[in-house]
């Protein structure tokens, strides 16, 4: 096990009641919970913690009659689409790839929606599950699901970014709330493929700031001998209103040539302000197998200029924990992944929320001394 004071799975697939799912009774097929993971997290007014859990709901029998099927939302209904098996590659358990063509075209093995799960103040125990407040697709750009919430409180307002998936675009959408209970969809805020937009929990120079992670099909090489490695990196953007974002001219956190463990990287928990600067937890991916090995790392950014990294550490803060998922071995379809998505101050430690193995929600108590 780990050496943290508390490190456990607190919510998983077996804890989801699919009879109360947004899809319940609306699709002519049996489904199951592929994963309940990657929870955005914030502290509520009552002192409890709120997880916005990504529930990936998948078909129990996606392959039949020589076709593979997937779920799609359209005009308040859930539909089943079918593709001939000969046209797809199913090597990745989370998605399938359309063969042929000049670029990658994917479809998903599940449709994701967000489930609010209320925990006690230290994140150890589930207090309530709010099915009546679940967030499901509501626009055509979300027809394949709403994924990976990140929640930031800026002033007295909560902002939640999500990844919305559709054939139209792979975009970042924003929800806002005055209490983190009732959420309003504000629409698309980043119109390019971006899985990890994290809004800083506080203004910088009177403006909203965010970490972003745009993806592309190619990356240009750094010169020989550079301290940086080419690949997906964490960029920055700022906004006057959290709706209209301008990319920062300076780079953010980049893959370092000194280690292959962070050859690919992206945002984790929304940056929070500490005495040292902005503490940001992010994920690094070491190439391995189909998916890669995901770990959590940390950096301190300058409080007045977040493009400046004050301190960082090549050693991982969190590693995948097979001992935690061992009791769920019959549900495990992926390993080597811890994907941090939230952080909350709890006095002498931080409560850190992560998705473990794309399967369940992990809560870890990290002493503040780890960042001293």
Automatic annotation (TrEMBL):
One Pfam family it belongs to: Glyco_hydro_130
GO molecular function: glycosyltransferase activity; hydrolase activity
Family stated for the protein in its record: Belongs to the glycosyl hydrolase 130 family.
Domain of life (superkingdom): Bacteria
Name of the protein described by the UniProt record: Predicted glycosyl hydrolase, GH43/DUF377 family
Keyword Hydrolase: yes
Coiled-coil region: none
Keyword terms of this UniProt record: Glycosyltransferase, Hydrolase, Transferase
